[in-house]
Amino acid sequence: MRHFGWIVAAPVAALMLAACGDEEAPASASPSDPPSSADAGQLYTGIFTVLEGQGHGPQLCSAVADSFPPQCGGPDVADWNWDEAPDATSADGVTWGSYSVTGTWDGTALTLTEPPLAGAATSPVVPDDALPDFSPPCEPPAGGWAVVDAATATVQGQAAIGAYTETQPDWAGTWVDESIEPAVMTVLFTGDLERHEAELRQVWGGPLCVGAAERSMAELTTIQEELAGSVPNLNRVGPEYTANVVELHVFIDDGLQEQLDEQYGEGVVRVSASLTPVE
Fold it and tell me: What keyword terms does UniProt attach to this protein (predicted)?
């Protein structure tokens, strides 16, 4: 059974980082041997907010600012016709809607090959294996998970865990599994687990799992920053704590997963794409 919970606040350097297209990546950050451009005849499909206004034509958006009218930006959509787009909304010079789109990709823009469909009716269900699994990677202690010191099983105790992990270079992630009662705090490190558990027990009295990870948060954050400055058509990038990997979301994966597997090691960076090939 998949468990659900939440990530404990992390140092600023480890937070999800949105890429800035104007940043120049250091030479070491650029993926070697960039993948070839997409096949000009290959069709791709995906579900997006399409928005026109704010000084630009129709664009694909994977993330939308919570405002009215909404704000977002992304690759251009060629051959777009709002008369063929169902359920569009317009306000203050901005027109937008959620759509399933299909077309060809030239590396910078999507050219439609058929009219868009209403996105709400075609949105895919996100599979369970695409979501973080907050299960603690420890066997339950004898007698089950329990509070051992109510005086420190508090919000202040959680804050103390965060303060502690900020000082530990081998820290690799912290989260809470709320599907277990009482909720279990998991903290990962790349080594010296007994010492870390003993020191955390001085500040936290709730259920605690101290587990091992292959890569520290500092390592994941370094990879994140390299990718943010070097990968084109990037939507978002950041560490996925529970899997101890970096998740990279792009508009199209044109051989990028294989390239990053070779550069960083298989599975260290997990690539997902908004546009998927039409078979």
Answer: Signal
Q: Contact, 60 vs 98, CB < 8 A? A: no
Tokens (6 digits) for 263: 């550069």
Q: Distance between CA atoms of 230 and 144, rounded to whole angstroms? A: 46
Question: For residue 39, is it left (φ>0), alpha (ψ between -120 and 50) or beta?
Answer: beta
- Identify the pLDDT of residue 8: 55
The rounded distance, in Å, linking the Cα atoms of 240 and 175 is: 11
- Cα dihedral 99, 101, 106, 107, rounded to 10, equals 50
Helix or strand run (H / E) with residue 222: helix 217-228
Residue 241 in tokens: 């704590």
Name the pairing type of β-strands 109-112 and 76-78.
parallel
Give strand ranges (E) for 153-277.
171-177, 184-189, 208-212, 234-240, 245-250, 269-273, 276-277
What torsion do the CA atoms of 9, 11, 13, 16 make, to the nearest 10 degrees? 0
Q: Report d(CA 32, CA 226) in Å as an integer.
A: 12
Give me the average pLDDT of each 10-residue run along the chain (279 residues): 47 36 34 50 90 90 83 89 92 92 90 87 48 89 94 96 97 94 96 97 97 97 94 86 94 90 96 88
The span from the CA of 115 to the CA of 8, in Å, is 43
